[in-house]
Each structure stands twice: as C-alpha cells, then as structure tokens.
Design goal:
The chain has three domains: about 1-200, no CATH class; about 210-275, Single alpha-helices involved in coiled-coils or other helix-helix interfaces, CATH 1.20.5; about 280-410, Histidine kinase-like ATPase, C-terminal domain (Heat Shock Protein 90, 2-Layer Sandwich). Helix content is about 65%, strand content about 10%. It is built from twelve helices and six strands. The chain has helices at about 1-15, 15-30, 35-45, 50-80, 85-105, 120-135, 140-160, 165-245, 250-275, 280-295, 310-330, 375-385, and strands at about 300, 335-345, 350-355, 370, 390-395, 400-405. Strands 1-2-3-6-5-4 form a six-stranded mixed sheet, with helices on one face. Strand 2 (about 335-345) and strand 3 (about 350-355) form a beta hairpin. The longest helix has about 80 residues, at about 165-245.
Length: about 425
C-alpha cells in the first residue's frame, strides 16, 4: 500500500501546475454530484415509503453520474478540446424531465402538514443538478433558458400541489436563486481553469520563441559569413571548369583562388561557432533574467563573474544558458534563483553555480539526485575538462536545483566573484 501511495505521489508531482489545477477543478466540480443522492434522501426520504425511497435513490444516483460525466465533457468542450457533448446533454435532460414527471404523477398532492410534497423536492434536486451540469456545455443564453424553464416547472408543481400563488412564486424564485449561486461558483471555476491553461500555453510559446530566436540568430550568422564565400567558390569553380573545357590557361589560378576562399570560409565558420559556444557569464546572467521575465518567471541573481578567468566564465555561462532553456521548456516555475558562491574543500577553492526553481515537472529518481544526462552533454563535457561536475537535486514538493562545481584556477584563488 505504501508503494502505491508513493507512486501516486510521484505522478502528482510530475504533473505541471496547469494539469494539477485542471484535475482539482474537475474533481471538485464533478465530485459535488456525490452529494446529490444524499441531498435527495434528506429532502424526500422521510415523506415516501421504503420501496419508493430505494427506487428514487437508484434513479437519482444514475442522474448524478450522468451529470458528473456531462460536467467533465462540458469542461473539455469549454476548453476547446472536443465538440459539444450533445448525447450527454440529451440523456441528462431526458432523465431530469422523466424524474420530474414521475414525481408529479406519483405524488400530485402536498404532504399533510407541509406546503409541498415529494414532487417539489424532486424538482429542486434534479433542476439544480441538471442546470449546473449543462451550463458547462452550452452558451450562457441557453443556460438562462434552461434556468427559466426550471423556475417555471417549480411554480407549476407547487400550484399542482395546491400552494397559493403567494407561496408558489417565492418557492420558484428561491429555486432560481439557489441555482444561480451554484452557477456562479461553477462559472468562476471554469473561467479560472481556462485562464490557467491560457497562461500555460503562453509560457510554452515564450519558451519556443526563445529557442527559435536563438536558432535564427545562429542561422543568420552562418548565412552572412559563409553564404557570400560559398557563392564565390561556386562561380570560380564553374569558371575553372569552362577554362579547362576550352583549353585556355588560367584554370589553375582560379582553383588556387577557390582553395584560398575555402580555407578562409572554414576559418570564419569556426570563428562563428566559437563565438556561439563562448558565453560570457555576466552577459548570460542578464540574458537569463530577461528571458525568464518575459516568460513570467521571476529571476533573482546572486553574485557575478568578476575576477573569474575567461575560461571559467565561458563554461559557467554555458551552464546558465542551458539551465535557462531547461526552466523554460521543462518546468512550470514561478521563481528561479541563480547564485554563485565560493567554498574551500580539502584546501582547494571551489566555485559553485546553482540554479533553483519551483516548477519541477519531470520524473524523479529514487534518491532525488542524479547526474545531468542527455540534455546537457556539452555542459558536462566542458565542466569535466576543468575538473568540475554538474548534478541535479529535487526536493519535494516541486523544487529543482541544478548545481555546477568548478575548482578555481590558482590565478584567481585570491579574488572573490
């Protein structure tokens, strides 16, 4: 049993913030229908016989299940994930009408000593359940029409039971007020859920745009630097081929020029890639703060790269770049903290860069700690080349920490970042 609870806990932590909110909203809205049979037994049970009580309980339980399914399907329709659940609407409406008609036929009169009877109780229970459920799947004007029909039905049943107009009208309006209160609660929950999903989609769009912009920048740099030279190589190669075909001199000179341009292009391409792979730490920290802020993530930076060698700054800058991409693409973070601190272990000064956020969504390892894998091969290689390491740590319920450690070179052990 303990392992089952642990697995469910892990599945819950693997859900994003939007998924958690969605699940909670569905459970709370649909789960409210568990109370429908209980409510009916309290209102109607004492006024009917034991056989009728059990029949009513079974029918109302079926009505509650259909309404709960309608709420779930209606939410999917409201969020644009499926078409309108017409069959569930028709089934729930048919059960509601059948229940009201059966109650009116079986109990047309008020109970002795009471202003109403079981038929009025059935109208109240079934109307509230159906109107609230159908509101999630139909437009507001249709919901208003269904509510008006429920109020009119309550007035008609009260009059059938012998209640005067002065009593039937307040009873019908009371039902309408009760339904409106439930509708308001449901609509607010639905609006909130839609807003959460829209924010989630916006965050993911920001992450995709950030990655796409970086790819476009790299592609533009390659095109600007290499494109012109490759065009010249193509033209000169074609010219040399034509000179050879015609038996004219100069082909060798053209090919030497092609070789020179090719070597220059190779050097320029290496410079572009080297510039792309070289990351200044302070620049990357500022960029991380800006990119995360645009995605709705508050970013706090503690420390900077002053006093660090270019090699250390480049390596840690790459860690910050990859860590920021990881936050954008694989988390639901609201806050991210980047800190640099210096410590001494075994007589050796070490620099630790940590990136911590509160939106972990990925799978958890058994001990909560594992080395960086496929997502950061370049980071792990660069740190290993300098004697460093990088690991991740997860802390319940949703904390995720990326930690990179580097031994400080002797040249900078007297300076503090």
């Amino acid at each position: 049993m303990g392992s089952g609870l642990t697995e469910r806990s892990r599945r819950w932590r693997r859900r994003g913030q939007a998924e958690r909110w969605d699940l909670w909203t569905r459970v709370s809205l649909s789960g409210a229908y568990v109370l429908e049979p209980l409510w009916a037994s309290i209102m109607i049970g004492p006024t009917v016989g034991p056989v009728a009580r059990w029949v009513m309980a079974a029918c109302i339980a079926l009505h509650a299940v259909i309404c709960a399914l309608l709420v779930h399907a209606g939410l999917d329709h409201y969020l644009g994930r499926r078409s309108r659940p017409v069959r569930l609407i028709a089934l729930a409406a048919g059960l509601t009408v059948a229940g009201v008609v059966a109650g009116a036929v079986a109990y047309p009169d008020a109970q002795p000593g009471h202003p109403d009877g079981p038929a009025s109780g059935l109208v109240v229970v079934l109307a509230i359940a159906f109107v609230v459920a159908v509101s999630s799947a139909v437009p507001l004007p249709v919901t208003a029409g269904v509510l008006a029909a429920a109020v009119a039905t309550k007035f008609a049943v009260s009059r059938m039971e012998g209640a005067p107009v002065s009593v039937a009208v307040p009873a019908a309006l009371g039902l309408g007020s009760l339904v409106l209160a439930w509708l308001l609660t449901y609509r607010v929950s639905m609006w909130g859920l839609k807003g959460v999903w829209e924010l989630d989609h916006s965050r993911k769009a920001h992450a995709r745009l950030a990655v796409a912009e970086e790819r476009l920048r790299f592609a533009r740099d390659l095109h600007d630097v290499i494109g012109r030279n490759l065009s010249v190589v193509a033209l000169k190669s074609e010219l040399a081929a034509r000179l050879v075909e015609r038996g004219r001199s100069g082909a060798m000179d053209e090919m030497r020029e092609v070789s020179r341009i090719a070597h220059e292009s190779l050097a320029e391409m290496r410079a572009v890639v080297r510039g792309y792979r070289t990351a200044d730490l302070d620049t990357e920290l500022a960029g991380a703060r800006s990119v995360l802020a645009s995605a709705g993530v508050r970013c706090q930076v503690i420390g900077d790269g002053r006093g660090l060698s270019a090699e250390v700054q480049s390596t840690l800058g790459w860690v910050v770049r990859e860590g920021t991409t990881n936050v954008l693409r694989h988390s639901e973070a609201r806050m991210c903290t980047v800190s640099l601190r210096r410590s001494t272990t075994g007589g050796t000064d070490r620099l630790t860069l940590s990136m911590e956020n509160d939106g972990v969504t990925g799978p958890e390892s058994p001990d909560g700690r594992r080395p960086i894998g496929n997502g950061f091969p370049g980071v792990a290689e660069r740190l290993a080349a300098l004697g460093g390491s990088v690991v991740t740590t997860r802390e319940p319920p949703d904390r995720f920490r990326l930690t990179a450690e580097l031994p400080l070179p002797v040249a900078v052990q007297e300076e503090t970042p």
